Every structure is written in structure tokens, then in C-alpha cells.
Amino acid sequence: MQLIKKKRTRELLLIWFFIAPSLAIFTLYRIVPLLWNGVLSLQFWSPYKLPEFAKLYHYEEMLFYDDAFWQALWNTIILMASAPIGIALALFIAVLVDTQVRGRNIYRTIVFMSYPVMTVAVGIIWQWLYNEKVGLINYVLISLGIIDRGIPFLESFDLALPCVIVASIWQVIGFYMIILLSGLQNIPPSLYESAAIDGATAWMRFQRITLPLLKPSIFLCFVIGIINSFTNFDLVYVMTQGGPGHATDLLITYIYTVAFKLSKFDYAAAMTIVNFLFFLGLALLANKAAGGEAGAIDVGK
Amino acid sequence: MHKYPHWPIHLVLVFVSALMLVPFIWVFKTSLTGENIFSYPPSILPKDPHFFYYVDVWYTIPFFRYLVNSVIVSAIVVVANIILNAMAGYSLTREFVGKKAIIVLYLSCMMIPFQVTIIPAYLITKELGLLNTHLGMALPVCSTIVCIFVFKASFDAIPKSLIDAARIDGMPDWKIVFRLMLPLSKSAIATNVILAFIWSWNNFLWPLVIIRDQNMQTLPLGLSRFLTVVEDTTGALYAFCIMVLLPGLIIFLLSQKEFIAGLTKGAAKG
């Protein structure tokens, strides 16, 4: 009896010893920062003196006086709203590479290739493609006779954000395609066969069989799109630095600028809290809409 | 199924592939020739290619230094991820008081994107004295929740009888994890390696925040800094781009299957 008890104690010790390091990392770099953000956002903070309680001062400033914040929030929403375009394109490509065409694996590889590539490099490539004088896009447009002179895409207030969005879709589309493709391959072919026998046209089969059964994969893509719009720092930082003005600033890039360029940690913390709540609300909403399936991990017993 | 002609599909797919490939090809071409103003007729193949820009990059900027830093950080992250995640994953296959709370805690942590933690994370790293260090860059991503659950699922699938047999033979538990269960979880390890490598190799925001020292910069930092100091039309920038892209692309092309499987598993990581 004593022996079993002793053994169990040793077992428990090992279990906790094994879980301790990862638990420490998550506490130190996820939970504590989240709470600390909350505290910081209610303080006047400066590296040189003791913090003072600021009540809701930063939140007031952000919500009522800071146009750049609203611009960044709006840009984040637009980036998010553009996700369905990328997903629709990816679905189109996924359906095509799901057929029996020869070389489909090569096509898949090519489309996917831009995803694992370093985003900083993608940003550099695209800001060059958009270049007014030597960019490939202007070159093509001029040789086709659509425009006479190069357009400074990334310096334009109206065009800069759409241009960044195109680059971001270009990078992520292969990933959407892979997710949708694995969804497509899980649909039993017998369904299509029996529908075809019943005389359903290809379009009807797509609408009635493919789309409904693909719902979980589409939602997963959507969740990735939402996460992307909150985390896509690298691309904007490299391509435009949030400019011109704040035309391409996302919440995350604006927070970075305020915190690490202007050294206003307290104010940036308040924005982070708003950013986080917004993100959390959307993620929960998306999860609910998907019936708790989107992005769910199998936790096991 | 119905027979349908394949050529329209090929037509569309070739067009799509061109859109995906042309940026890469053009960057590669420019890195070899430096010519940005296009020649008539425009050619896909570079005229008079040379490697001067690559030589330039190698000697004028501390490319090797950046590379070494990137490799060190990624190595720390990958090794730490395998060991720490396997340990935590094993614990979660066992029964103990507080297990439910831990799982809930981990799942909630997944809802906190790293990006919303940068300000306090910076202050914490500063307190720990880890600014401008490899460990400081690596520490926040030394364990990942998705991968913990990947390991847990893999460990759950190992037959109980095998573990019991090892236990009866007097194998201590920690040995069971590292000598028996880990070698049986090859695909979980592959997922871990790939995800950890991608996240640390491409990581930009975090090093940008905590690294001030020139000698500690990683490849993405060096690349973005180089962009600000050179004219963005020189061949050297694109040679640098290619040198940064190539290792990742080669690794991807060599291990495509594991790569895609791994990334899909880690899809919804916050």
C-alpha cells in the first residue's frame, strides 16, 4: 500500500515536472502580458518615473481624439473583409487541381510555394513590382497601352491599401487552396455519381454537394483570414511602413509605431486591449457560426 | 464521371501558375543582371548573367552573421519545441488533479495572438536581461500549444500494452517518454520541426522589437534594414532576397508532404 502511494507521488511529481516548462513559458509570455497590458492601459507610464493611475484617459483619447486609430481599425476591417475574395479564388483553383488533369501536383506546388516564404521577402518583391518607374506591373500596363505613365501605387492614398491586400492574398492563397483541397478530397465521390445519374448539372452538384460539405474548410480559411488581418505586420511594415499618412496602417503596425517609435507604452497597451477584445469577439463569433468546428483542435479524452 | 476536355483547365492553371511564379522569376533575373529597365523585346532569360551582386551581398553586409543568428535561434526553438511539447503532451495523456484546468488554460492561451503581447513581453524580456540575445528571441516560441496537442494525440495512439510492458520491465517514466514514445511519434515530431522552424525562421516582429545590436540581427531583420539603406532598384537587394528565400524554398520542396500536413495542423494557431 505504502509502495503504491509512493509510486503515485513520484508519478505526479514527474507529470508536473514535465508540464512546468511549457506552463511557465505560456504564463510568462501570454497570460502575464495580457494582464500587464490591462494594467498599463490604465496608467501614465514612463521609463523614468513611477507610473500613475490614469483612469480611462488613454481609452478616451483613442476613441474620441485619435483619427489614426480609427483609420487603422478600418484598414484592419477592410483587410479582413477581403479574405472572402482570396478564399473564393482559392476554391476555384482547388476545384481545378482536384480534377484528373495531368501535372496537378506541380500546379499545387507552384500555387502553394508563396506561402512558406519569408513575408519580409514577399514584401520587398511586391513593393518592387508596384514601383512607379521600374515596377513590372506598371511596365505591363504601359506596354498594353492602358496607361501612359507609371502609377506610384504605394504612394497613393487610394491605391496603397488595395495593393497591400493583393500582395497578402497572393501570399496566402496557396494555403487556402490546400485546406479547401483536403476538404474536397474528403467528399465521397459516390455522392457526385448518384447526383449525376439523377441528372444534376455540374453547377448544381457544386452548389448542392460541394459547397455544403466544404463548409468546415471554408470556415477554417475564414478564421485564418481573420487572424491574418490582425497579425499581418511584416508585409505592411516592409511595403509601406503604414503610409502614406496612415493609409495602410493596421492596428498591429500602428500599435508598434506608437509603442516602439513614440515610446508611448501606456497608450499602445490601451489599443492592444481594444484590438484583443475585437479579435476575441470575432473569433468567438466565427467559431459559433461554424458550430464550434472552425479551427477546433482535437483535445482528446 | 463525365469526360470533359482538359485543355481549358490547363489554360487557367498555367495562367494562375504564371501569376504565382513571375514575381520569383523576375527577382531572380534582376539579381543576376541588375537590369530594371526592360529591354525590348522583354526576355524571361537573363542576358549576361553574373554573380557580382551575390558577391556584393556576401562582402558588404554581414550576411554570414545574420545567417548564423537565424540558424542559432531556429535551432534553439526547434529543439526546445520537441522536448518541451513532448513532455507537456505526455503529461496530458495521464490523469491528475488540475488537468482540466491546464487544458482550458492552454486553449485560452491559443486565443491570445503573440502580437497582442509585445509591449509587456518586451518589458519582461528586458527584466530578464535577455534583450539582444538569441535566447530572448527564442524563448517566447519555445513551446507551442498546437504542437502539444499534436504530441498528445500521437501518444494517445500508442498501444497501452506496450507502455505497460516497458513499465513492468522497470523502465522509469521519463525513459518511457524519450526512449519509447518519442521514437514512435515520427509524424508528430515532423510537424513540430516544421512549424517551429517556419515560425522562428520567418519571425520578424519580435526580433525587431528586442534586437538593437547590429551583430544580433537575423536574416529578415537584415533584409528589411538593407531595404532602407540601398536604393530599392539595385540588384544587390534582390540577390539578398534570393539568398534568404532559397534555403526555405529548398527545404519546402524536399519535404513538401510533411510540410503541408504540418502547416494544416497548425492552421488556426493564434
Quick synopsis:
By secondary structure, chain A is an all-alpha fold. Chain A has a single domain, classed as MetI-like fold (Orthogonal Bundle), CATH 1.10.3720. Chain A has 13 helices and two strands; from the N terminus they run αββαααααααααααα.
Describe the structure.
The complex is a heterodimer of chains A (301) and B (270). Chain A has helices at residues 2-41, 57-65, 67-81, 83-97, 104-112, 119-129, 136-143, 160-185, 189-197, 202-231, 233-239, 251-261, 265-289, and strands spanning 43-46, 49-53. Chain A is mainly alpha-helical and 301 residues long. The longest helix of chain A is centred in the N-terminal third of the chain and has 40 residues, at 2-41. Chain B has a single domain (52-265), classed as MetI-like (MetI-like fold, Orthogonal Bundle). Helices cover 69% and strands 0% of the residues of chain B. In chain B, helix 2 (52-60) packs across helix 13 (235-254), helix 7 (145-156) runs antiparallel to helix 10 and helix 10 (186-201) packs across helix 14. Chain B is globular and about 70 Å long. The two termini of chain B are 41 Å apart.
Quaternary structure classification? heterodimer
- DSSP strand tally of chain B: 0
Element string of chain B (H = helix, E = strand): HHHHHHHHHHHHHH
Number of domains of chain A: 1
Radius of gyration of chain B: 23 Å
Q: Tell me the overall shape of chain A.
A: flat
Strand content of chain B: under 5%
User: How many DSSP H or I helices of chain B?
Assistant: 14
Q: Based on the structure given, which CATH architecture of chain A is correct?
A: Orthogonal Bundle
Alpha carbon gap, first and last residue of chain B: 41 Å
CATH class of chain A: Mainly Alpha
SS class of chain B: mainly alpha
The H-level CATH homologous superfamily of chain B, spelled out, is MetI-like
Greatest chain-chain contact: A-B, 98 and 98 residues
CATH topology of chain B: MetI-like fold
Q: Based on DSSP secondary structure assignment, what is the total number of beta strands of chain A?
A: 2
Instruction: Please identify the structural class of chain A as seen in this structure.
Output: mainly alpha
What is the CA–CA distance across the termini of chain A?
29 Å
> How would you sum up the major sheet of chain B?
none
- Mind describing the biggest β-sheet of chain A? 2 strands, antiparallel
